[in-house]
Amino acid sequence: MSRDTNVKVSPIETIESLTKEAEHLKIKLEDERQKLNDVTLAAVADRLEIINYMNVKPRRTLKGHQAKVLCSDWSPDKRHIVSSSQDGKMIIWDAFTTNKEHAVTMPTTWVMACAYAPSGNLVACGGLDNKVTVYPLSLDEDVTLKKKTVGTHTSYTSCCTFPNSDQQILTGSGDSTCALWDVESGQLLQSFHGHAADVMSIDLAPSEIGNTFVSGSCDKMVYLWDMRTGQCVQSFEGHESDVNSVKFHPSGDAIATGSDDATCRLFDLRADREVAVYNKESIIFGINAVDFSVSGRLLFAGYNDYTVNVWDTLKCVRVCLLYGHENRVSCLQVSPDGTALSSGSWDCTLRVWA
Amino acid sequence: MDMVVSNLQQQRAVTEQLRREAVIKRVPVSQAVADIVKFIQEHEQDDCLLVGFSSQRVNPFREKSSCSLL
């Protein structure tokens, strides 16, 4: 009549027990992070010299889009730029001469994402068509002849990038997921679920062997993902509105973000927390795009007030403003060798600063 | 019933995510920040947008000289 005590009963998980555990873990996490928050970035940077002279000037204006420029990407050759627009066009520019080498009409307006492949021989784009399409670049024939649809989301494609080779494309979407696609077969290799709203921006870890990427979303969150497993590795909160742009620090140890809450922030991966906020009381406009200079000392940020603000990432102060655009700055990117900055705007132009 | 199951699954995913994040190894902010400063200082001299060009000749986007020899 004795009971069988050898049967192991797994603890029954209920919504209540799981919720309680989650609350407990959240408090523990916050405690742990706070315990290690022993100094501020600005205090450490206090002994450093200020940046008192910057000679960055407008050098080129690229005119040709008929509507808002939404996205742009430098070619690995540091000379060409691909841009996409609300007018449904994707243009390949020679930024040295300002000539247009290709103009491709997409079957949709609002082409919100475009990217160069690492070889420089292929570009990808997508937008309100929910797709990501690749175009092999060739000067001899119409590039649309060899276009190929690689992936399809259930909502708009907001961003795309090639992780280390021409064979794969990583996309972010309004369907709140990210996805990794095989270019050749169009197969979905991995999907990344976790965000509770539209994914606006993604960026790959700078290391060539890196298998992580970061995403920013309208759920105000920033997630770090493992590309192989599809799992979220770390999450960062702090922003009070949509996160429109995310970018790895060149060291690979931190992430900068730009948000509709009018702040840029720096999150450190190893400290697992926010380490800096870049804002001023006078700045009330949202940020659409951020990128670092090659050393990581400067953070360029494109704002809805038509300006590009340049932040000293260490001293946490604004170094200067770049004026020129006549509408929102929607995208910006430092060239691969760090010699120039491109910016795109709702004023239909792109500009190159150096 | 399906609703209950899906809510349970959703909460399980949230809790499991927090469990994973709870065991992450962290370093003090002072150490993380010192490493960022070190990286920047090691690369500042190559940062053309920060320190400029040694000569405008090496700036690929410089304006072409407006005067020329006849």
TrEMBL record, chain A:
Each WD repeat occupies one of these ranges, namely 62-103, 150-191, 192-235, 236-277, 287-312, 322-354
A Gene Ontology biological process annotation? signal transduction
Q: Does the UniProt entry include the keyword Cytoplasm?
A: no
The record's section on InterPro entries has: G-protein_beta_1-5, WD40/YVTN_repeat-like_dom_sf, WD40_G-protein_beta-like, WD40_PAC1, WD40_repeat_CS, WD40_repeat_dom_sf, WD40_rpt
What are the entry keywords?
Coiled coil, Repeat, Transducer, WD repeat
Name residues in a coiled coil.
12-42
Q: Which SUPFAM superfamilies match?
A: WD40 repeat-like
Which family would the database say this protein is a member of?
Belongs to the WD repeat G protein beta family.
- How is this protein named in the record? Guanine nucleotide-binding protein subunit beta-5
The species this protein belongs to is Aquatica leii
TrEMBL record, chain B:
Return the CDD domains for the record. Answer: GGL
Do you know which Gene3D superfamilies this protein is assigned to? Transducin (heterotrimeric G protein), gamma chain
Tell me, what is an example of a GO biological process annotation in this record?
G protein-coupled receptor signaling pathway
Q: Which PROSITE patterns match?
A: G_PROTEIN_GAMMA
Record key words, sorted: Cell membrane, Lipoprotein, Membrane, Methylation, Prenylation, Transducer
| Name of the protein this chain belongs to | G protein gamma domain-containing protein
What family classification does the UniProt entry report for this protein?
Answer: Belongs to the G protein gamma family.
Gene Ontology, cellular component aspect: heterotrimeric G-protein complex
Q: Which InterPro entries match?
A: G-protein_gamma (IPR001770), G-protein_gamma-like_dom (IPR015898), GGL_sf (IPR036284)
Q: How does it sit in the membrane?
A: Lipid-anchor
Predominant localisation class: membrane
Q: Which GO terms describe its molecular function?
A: G-protein beta-subunit binding
Give the highest taxon in the source lineage: Eukaryota
Residues annotated as domain G protein gamma: 4-70
Tell me which PANTHER family the record gives: GUANINE NUCLEOTIDE-BINDING PROTEIN GAMMA SUBUNIT
